[in-house]
Design brief:
By secondary structure, this protein is of the alpha/beta class. It contains 14 helices and 13 strands. Strand 2 and strand 3 form a beta hairpin.
């Protein structure tokens, strides 16, 4: 699994259209499996031209891409934190995700009514963030009360935890998101991590625009960029309507269609690329005649940790990693040529795996 992305937004912003389009995008490619786990959950393969190149070089019996899971989080309206819409049910689902894609309506269409009557990205973003903050306040109050009960013992640690959640409560009550809370030490980092707060999730804003606005910035998108710049958030501009059209096309025709609109890649690809960067993820590969497989790990993962992504036994019994860079393999055209050029490396336990590494792990259990 690459990462899990929750798609949130007010009603009628194009959230479900985008979800349906980008999850359907993986359905037409035999080696890129698509499945629906629940009505609001879809899994798509991560498109990667490097995987295609490795497949051409090794001609394996099986190709396995890394995948991305999307959750279409419904029911987020003003009052969701108090149960309006299906608020509490779907706010709970956000706790499961690694990142949030906040879809913001940046198009005018008199035939599609805005839930609050006017197109205003600033207001829309504030509504969603307020509901997430209110839900987090409820969580933090319960955490603080639990720590207070435990602090009645002689142990000072629960008292410190109670004080931390008190500061976090004040931070949230001021309308600030949990991810901007200054953390003083490792204990505080553990406490906030284990609280699984909604506003501690990294966010990308997905500006849904009309097809005619693709390739240029309208005033609504510019406003979202201003908000994102203050938060250090990512911004992706897509047209959910165009994504729906792309999803209907045979895979062989999609790139030509996108180029006809002046686009280099689909909205799905943009969301994946920005999501990987947002979460500091990289892709490495294992390759051979039996299988070519893409794997996802956090940037900075050591060779044993990357091996553990394949199987826990690989990490436990790690001996060494034999590594080629994809760039060398792509340029020279074969594993034998890479070895002959002296570019096959042997790395130990301290090595940090790089994006595009083609690896073979030696282990003994």
């Amino acid at each position: 699994m690459g990462f899990t992305c929750g798609i949130v937004g007010l009603p009628n912003v194009g959230k479900s259209t985008l979800f349906n389009a980008i999850t359907a995008a993986g359905a037409d490619v035999a080696n890129y499996p698509f499945c629906t786990i629940e009505p609001n959950v879809g899994v798509v393969a991560v498109p990667d031209r490097r995987l295609d190149r490795l497949t051409a070089l090794y001609k394996p019996g099986k190709v396995v891409p890394t995948t991305l899971e999307f959750l279409d989080i419904a029911g987020l309206v003003k009052g969701a934190s108090k149960g309006e819409g299906l608020g509490n049910q779907f706010l709970g689902h956000i706790r499961m995700v690694d990142a949030i894609a906040h879809v913001v309506r940046c198009f005018e269409d008199e035939n599609i009514v805005h839930v609050d009557g006017a197109i205003d990205p600033t207001y829309d973003i504030e509504v969603i963030e307020t509901e997430l903050v209110l839900k987090d306040l409820d969580t933090v109050e319960r955490k603080q009360a639990d720590a207070e009960r435990r602090s009645r013992t002689a142990d000072k640690k629960p008292k410190e935890e109670e004080e931390f959640f008190g500061r976090l409560k004040a931070h949230l009550a001021g309308g600030r998101l949990a991810r901007y809370m200054p953390l003083a030490n490792d204990d505080e980092r553990v406490w906030i991590r284990d609280a699984h707060l909604l506003t501690d999730k990294p966010v990308m804003y997905v500006c849904n625009v009309h097809e005619k606005d693709l390739g240029r910035e309208n005033a609504h998108v510019q406003r979202v960029r201003e908000i994102a710049a203050k938060e250090g958030a990512k911004v992706v501009v897509v047209s959910a309507a165009v994504e729906a059209e792309v999803a209907e096309l045979p895979e062989s025709e999609r790139q030509h269609f996108l180029e006809g609109l002046g686009l280099k890649e689909s909205g799905l690809s943009q969301v994946i690329h920005e999501g990987y960067d947002l979460l500091h993820l990289i892709t490495f590969f294992t390759a051979g005649p039996k299988e070519v497989h893409a794997w996802t790990v956090r940037r900075g993962a050591t060779a044993p940790e990357a091996a553990g992504a394949i199987h826990t036994d690989f990490q436990k019994g790690f001996i060494r990693a034999e590594i080629m860079s994809f760039a060398d393999l792509d340029r020279l055209g074969s594993e034998a040529a890479v070895k002959e050029a002296g570019l096959m490396r042997v790395e130990g336990k301290e090595y940090e795996v790089k994006d595009g590494d083609v690896t073979y792990f030696r282990f003994n259990v």
